[in-house]
Write a structure and sequence with these properties.
- The protein has about 200 residues and is an alpha+beta fold.
- The chain has a single domain, classed as Lipid/polyisoprenoid-binding, YceI-like (Lipocalin, Beta Barrel), CATH 2.40.128.
- The protein contains 4 helices and 13 strands.
- Strands 1, 2, 3, 4, 5, 6, 7, 8, 9, 10, 11, 12 and 13 form a 13-stranded antiparallel beta sheet that branches.
- A hairpin with a 4-residue loop joins strand 2 and strand 3.
- The longest helix has 16 residues.
- The protein is elongated.
Length: about 200
């Protein structure tokens, strides 16, 4: 009887002392890798850029650029960067024909010599992507690159850029980008608006 009790007590102890294979131990203790955060290409068919140049005689030149490309990509964990490229040669300005000629000319956007209009952001947080906030970066216009600060508007959907537009607004100084013509008739502030929709791109 005593021998049977001893065997019953020793049996679970023997199982406890059996070494567990290292591979099985690692598999049990190592968490599964998180899925990589994807990048998203800009959908040029549903994105665009706008310029509003205000004249001092209560008039304004409202320009639209439909040819837009770029990418929203992950940066550090929980942050993003965006790059937007607009083709200035595709600029169209509402109103009289002379407004479009002047806006496209070398006195202003100079789109024939410098068609590339590019914004590269600094990293911004996931919270800003959803709730809105300041997005800083570098704007290249007329061949000149200057630091700028734009405002990303609050999103109206759960997946900004995919289920609804990403909308960015800001004011730039035209003189900082070499647009110094007609100072008595054209105001210095130029309003820039970006409307961006996204498509899935390759994983980073």
């Amino acid at each position: 009887m005593r021998l049977a009790r001893a065997r019953a007590w020793l049996l679970p102890l023997a199982f406890a002392l059996v070494p567990i294979p290292t591979a099985a131990l690692v598999a049990a203790t190592t968490p599964a890798p998180a899925a990589p955060v994807r990048s998203f290409a800009i959908d040029g068919a549903r994105s665009g850029a706008e310029f509003i140049v205000r004249l001092r005689l209560r008039m304004r030149a409202h320009g639209r650029i439909a040819a837009v490309s770029g990418e929203l990509r992950p940066d550090a964990p929980g942050s993003w960067r965006v790059e937007v490229l607009a083709d200035g040669s595709a600029l169209r300005v509402a109103g009289p024909r002379w407004m479009e000629r002047v806006t496209r000319s070398e006195d202003f956007l100079d789109v024939e010599r410098h068609p590339e209009i590019r914004f590269r952001s600094a990293p911004f947080s996931e919270r800003v992507l959803h709730a809105g906030g300041r997005v800083r970066g570098q704007l290249t216009l007329r061949g000149l690159t200057r630091p700028v600060s734009f405002r990303l508007l609050p999103s109206a959907c759960a997946q900004p850029g995919r289920d609804c537009d990403l909308r960015v607004q800001g004011i730039i100084s035209r003189t900082e980008f070499g647009m110094t013509a007609y100072p008595r008739s054209v105001k210095d502030d130029v309003e820039l608006r970006l409307r961006v929709r996204l498509l899935p791109a390759a994983s980073p």
